[in-house]
């Protein structure tokens, strides 16, 4: 009996060893018909969605180190603390006091300032930064403030680490009784993730301060008031087709009073009025009472960023509606003039000559040339008859004066059912330009919907997949992960977007950025702390697609077959055929990619994004656990013998003869 069992075991093992694995079975034939290229792929195809959520702007891309620099948060001393020291006159006699005032302020948009009342030399206060202040050894920071003084002539600044060890020191001096801006440069001795900024006054008397700033000198393109370099680099590496800004629900505001108004975000930064960030108190489980918008990153900077990274700017404007998930406030039709005016003036700001009022402001800010704005979003994630009524008012005015500008309209918050269906029917009737669809769905949904656009109506409005991301646990769940399962599912779906590029003209993953200590929404493409950042597997999927997008669709079969998803395109600029294949299987899969109507002129550049573990993630310690790898292959007899790795996304770029 024992012998028989052993014999059976040995036979089974032998069978397992000798039977071909999936990778050794007959290869799947992938046929690419380069002789019959299809529609053009829009140069805007894969872009980015930016919203100030998760500390993406203040505390993130906008690298100001001082939180509440203008004392305009709801609690004007948020982020600021007294340095309590013993007074020589006893415990009940403070060395000084912090007094927030509004009389005779720096300017109307910045009504609060801090009066530092110094009763004894050495009185001080400190700022905690955005979850601490990130500083780098050897780097220079511009320390500045607006100051007015009736006595003290100087203010000292020190930067200290968590143990109180000093790592940088500077001084502003020469104050008089008028508001003036003072600046000095501080070089840091060490790298600290969570430092604090301490300010001291060594003379008795009153000192008024506002717009206290500590700003890295080494910004993207070395611009003063510039953006955080590592984060812009990650965005730039995507080669995005467009940049959607400033959101997202932030456009709408929870109430109309706190909606996004682009006009308050341009010009001198001390004149940009700080308001609450709508993500401040959106989620009970993730409260962020210190989340406000300084607008140091405003519309000028967004346009400049888009230009820097070669992306078409896509501003989204409030259409007279606050978030329909919150207050759902609506501006009356008779109150819409201001909103429509904002849209018309924005076109002037972006494209108008320097002789136009808003074009002049752009010129004064340093950009006489136009920003070449071609699209505007009317409303963010709106729906329903109230929205349609307001859209009609916008469209009438904008199309009459600027027929060259395409309008992006919303289809509500979900990818099917109501109100999605009725919004689409309306947009078809109204012959809208581009419809923005949002899908925050499960990874399974993404893989099951790769054919979503195969049967979309080819005439009428085009599609903008304006916000999407696979949710591993559920929409707005804090358990969502940026893992490989989510990312490869998005990649599968994106092959369908690309194959249908005649209908889908733009797509963007959302949200884009998240601070590890200050996020509200998961998943996000890029994570950062005060000093470092990394791209998630989802980021790398975006990168691989956006960097290999091509200019014309090429027919490919099969498009979806047992966990295999494909798309193909021609790049008429580089004269290459580009093939993408996603293998959502635990085994490798051998494929013969047959190229018809195409003669290759050299080796195939292969980019592979793979991980056999669907739960794999990137992290600060292991930022490229899932990241693209390059290799080469040859075309032999008009075909590529490919081995698609388990759970992989592979891109082949083949030079044409
Ligand atoms: O991306 C996060 C949010 O999701 C956006 O602000 C909103 O448009 C959508 O509901």
Question: Strands, helices and their partners?
Answer:
Blueprint: H1 2-18, E1 28-33, E2 46-49, E3 80-83, E4 96-101, E5 113-118, E6 123-127, E7 133-135, E8 140-149, E9 154-160, E10 166-173, E11 180-187, E12 192-201, E13 205-216, H2 229-237, E14 242-245, E15 275-276, E16 292-293, H3 299-308, E17 312-317, H4 337-351, H5 357-364, E18 375-378, H6 385-401, E19 406-410, H7 420-429, E20 434-441, H8 443-448, E21 462-470, H9 484-499, E22 504-509, E23 513-515, E24 526-528, E25 533-535, H10 537-546, E26 552-553, E27 556-557, E28 560-561, E29 564-571, E30 576-583, E31 589-596, E32 604-610, E33 629-633, E34 639-644, E35 648-655
Parallel strand pairs: 1-31, 2-14, 2-22, 14-17, 17-18, 18-19, 19-20, 20-21, 21-22, 23-24
Antiparallel strand pairs: 1-27, 3-6, 4-5, 5-13, 6-12, 7-12, 8-11, 8-13, 9-10, 9-12, 15-16, 24-25, 26-29, 28-29, 29-30, 30-35, 31-34, 32-33, 32-35
Helix pairs in contact: 4-5, 4-6, 9-10
Bound molecules: alpha-L-arabinofuranose.
Describe this structure in words.
It is a single chain. The chain is α/β, with parallel strands linked by helices. Helix content is 18%, strand content 30%. It contains 10 helices and 35 strands. The strands form 7 sheets. It has an 8-stranded parallel barrel with strand order 2-14-17-18-19-20-21-22, surrounded by 6 helices. Strands 26, 28, 29, 30, 32, 33 and 35 form a 7-stranded antiparallel sheet that branches. A hairpin with a 4-residue loop joins strand 29 and strand 30 (576-583). The chain is globular and about 90 Å long. The relative contact order is 0.13. The structure holds alpha-L-arabinofuranose. The site of alpha-L-arabinofuranose has 12 residues, from loops.
């Amino acid at each position: 009996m024992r012998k028989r069992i052993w014999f059976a075991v040995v036979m089974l093992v032998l069978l397992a060893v000798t039977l071909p694995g999936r990778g050794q079975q007959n290869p799947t034939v992938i046929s690419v018909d380069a002789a019959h290229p299809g529609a053009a792929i829009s140069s805007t195809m894969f872009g980015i969605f930016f919203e100030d959520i998760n500390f993406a702007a203040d505390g993130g891309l906008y690298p100001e180190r001082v939180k509440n620099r203008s004392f305009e948060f709801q609690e004007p001393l948020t982020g600021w603390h007294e340095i309590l020291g013993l007074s020589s006159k006893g415990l009940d006699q403070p060395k000084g006091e912090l007094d927030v005032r509004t009389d005779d302020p720096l300017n109307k948009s910045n009504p609060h300032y801090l009066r530092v009342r110094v009763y004894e030399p050495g009185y001080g206060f400190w700022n905690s930064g955005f979850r601490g202040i990130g500083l780098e050894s050897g780097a220079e920071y511009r320390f500045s403030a607006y100051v007015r003084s009736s006595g003290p002539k100087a203010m000292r600044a020190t930067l200290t680490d968590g143990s109180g060890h000093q790592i940088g020191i500077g001084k502003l001096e020469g104050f008089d009784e008028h508001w003036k801006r003072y600046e000095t440069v501080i070089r840091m001795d060490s790298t600290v993730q969570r430092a604090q900024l301490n300010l001291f006054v060594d003379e008795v008397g009153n000192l008024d301060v506002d717009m206290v700033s500590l700003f890295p000198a080494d910004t993207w393109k070395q611009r003063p008031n510039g953006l955080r370099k590592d984060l812009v680099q990650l965005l730039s590496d995507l080669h995005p087709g467009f940049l959607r800004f400033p959101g997202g629900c932030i456009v709408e505001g929870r109430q109309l009073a706190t909606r996004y108004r682009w006009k308050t975000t341009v010009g001198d930064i001390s004149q940009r009025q700080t308001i609450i960030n709508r993500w401040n108190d959106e989620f009970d489980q993730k409260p962020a009472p210190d989340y406000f918008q300084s607008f140091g990153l405003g519309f000028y900077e967004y346009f400049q960023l888009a230009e820097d990274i070669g992306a078409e700017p896509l501003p989204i404007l409030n259409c007279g509606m606050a978030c329909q998930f919150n207050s759902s406030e609506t501006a009356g039709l008779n109150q819409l003039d201001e909103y429509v005016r904002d849209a018309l003036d924005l076109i002037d700001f972006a494209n108008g000559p320097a002789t136009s009022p808003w074009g002049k402001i752009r010129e004064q800010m340093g950009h006489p040339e136009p920003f070449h704005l071609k699209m505007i979003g009317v409303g963010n994630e709106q729906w329903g008859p109230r929205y349609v009524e307001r859209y009609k008012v916008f469209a009438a005015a904008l199309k009459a004066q600027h027929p060259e500008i395409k309008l992006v309209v919303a289809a509500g918050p979900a990818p099917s059912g109501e109100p999605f269906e009725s919004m689409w029917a309306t947009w078809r009737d109204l012959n809208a330009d581009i419809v923005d669809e949002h899908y925050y769905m499960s990874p399974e949904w993404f893989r099951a919907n790769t054919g979503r656009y195969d049967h979309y109506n080819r005439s009428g409005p085009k599609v903008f997949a304006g916000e999407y991301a696979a949710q591993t646990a559920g929409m707005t769940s804090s358990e969502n992960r940026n893992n490989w399962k989510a990312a490869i599912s998005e990649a599968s779906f994106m092959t369908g977007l690309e194959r249908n590029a005649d209908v889908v003209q733009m797509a963007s993953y959302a949200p884009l950025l998240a601070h590890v200590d200050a996020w509200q929404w998961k998943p996000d493409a890029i994570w950062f702390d005060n000093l470092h950042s990394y791209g998630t597997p989802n980021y790398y999927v975006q990168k691989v697609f956006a960097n290999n997008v091509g200019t014309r669709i090429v027919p490919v079969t099969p498009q979806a077959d047992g966990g295999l998803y494909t798309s193909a395109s021609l790049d008429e600029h580089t004269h290459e055929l580009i093939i993408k294949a996603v293998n959502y299987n635990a085994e490798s899969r051998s494929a013969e990619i047959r190229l018809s109507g195409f003669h290759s002129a050299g080796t195939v550049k292969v980019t592979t994004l793979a991980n056999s573990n669907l739960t794999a993630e990137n992290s600060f310690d292991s930022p490229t656990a899932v990241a693209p790898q390059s290799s080469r292959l040859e075309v032999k007899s008009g075909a590529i013998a490919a081995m698609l790795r388990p759970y992989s996304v592979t891109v082949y770029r083949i030079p044409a003869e």
